[in-house]
Amino acid sequence: MTSAVNPPRSGPRAITRTLRSVTDLLDAGLVPPTQAPELEQVARQYATAIPPAFASLIETPDDPIGRQVIPHPSECHTEAAEDPDPIGDDALSPVPGIVHRYADRALLKPLLVCPLYCRFCFRREHVGPGGGVLDDAALARALDWLRTHTDIHEVVMTGGDPLMLSPRRMRAIMTALEGMAHIHTIRIHSRVPVADPERLDAEMAEALDTTRSMWLVVHVNHARELTPQARAAIRRVQARAIPVLGQSVLLRGVNDTPEAMEDLLRAQVAARIRPYYLHQLDPAPGTARFHVPIREGQRLLAGLRGRVTGIAWPTYVLDIPGGHGKVPIAPDYLHTGPDGHLRVRAPDGTIHRLARERG
Question: What NCBIfam families does the annotation carry (predicted)?
């Protein structure tokens, strides 16, 4: 089992700047020259960005780190089940920058820029250098929408990646949200702590300080992403009594083995991150090579039951296509036998009959 505390390993060549083009990838030795024409076609559809901190973890282009972020020719092929807006963000956006799917919470997307562009991202049709930041007027309209919808108690900042904002702009948003008495909880979902940890510096950590219940949710898919630098960035937030949760996507070739998933869950707990969600892959265009069937995902988690602490146990969820919300799809340990008694399957696979319940 890979240790969660090993130092990051070096990539094929030393990388000192963010890789953004096919030429950059060729120069770094991460793609073969024969793929260049096909990858230029991919680049016309989807952005590429791999910061040095993340690139340095790539050992081979198709290892669990490289596979997530290096473009692949198959991205230009769209399967029948794939959708440019797989979870219905567009249809549920009352004003730019807001998505309202659940009664008591809303997404605030202040920008559509990320530190790195994951090849499986469900917003890949929207994010990229051209996505930009909400201008002052658009941000004001989004905040006004939140201000006037007093049934909203939680704001989830996503994007893009909110930690790509400047500390000044982040602080301004925090101040605005603090001025809304009905907003009790703020969540920030980010890849920055593992992708570009230096960006989450003391100034940004200070900007996140708020009188509201603040939570940071870090997107991490493989144990090797939690480098000493990433853990140091996360600790800057934790030192301000901001709890940190983890979310991951179940990905073929990245974390779809019992060993890789166990390492990932243990690495999060070792970094004082509570695993929160394990997402079933959303069917965005060109992402079929990452797909793991739901039943396989259920068997994978079931195989870890009893092997890892409950602290490390995420909720396995499916975001129902079309914007109908997330539902848990965890393994089912209960069924009713022919005698009407409930039967439960233990972690070792044995079946046990429960006494008939009263009522």
Answer: AblA_like_2 (TIGR03822), KamA family radical SAM protein (TIGR00238)
CA pair distance 303, 15, nearest whole angstrom:
38
Query: How much is the pTM?
Result: 0.91
Nearest by Cα to 257 from 299, 218, 295: 299
Instruction: Give pLDDT, residue 5.
Output: 42
User: Known catalytic residue: 333?
Assistant: no
Catalytic site residue from 121, 199, 231, 263: 121
What distance in Å separates the CA atoms of residue 90 and residue 285, rounded to the nearest whole number?
Answer: 16
Give per-residue pLDDT as tens, 44-90.
Answer: 999 999 999 999 999 999 999 999 999 999 999 999 988 888 888 88
What domains, with CATH codes, occur in the chain? Answer: 90-328 (3.20.20.70), 334-359 (no CATH)
CA distance 198 to 18: 13
Q: Is residue 169 among the annotated active site residues? A: no
Q: Which two tokens stand for residue 90?
A: 């567009």
List the binding residues for [4Fe-4S] cluster. Answer: 114, 118, 121
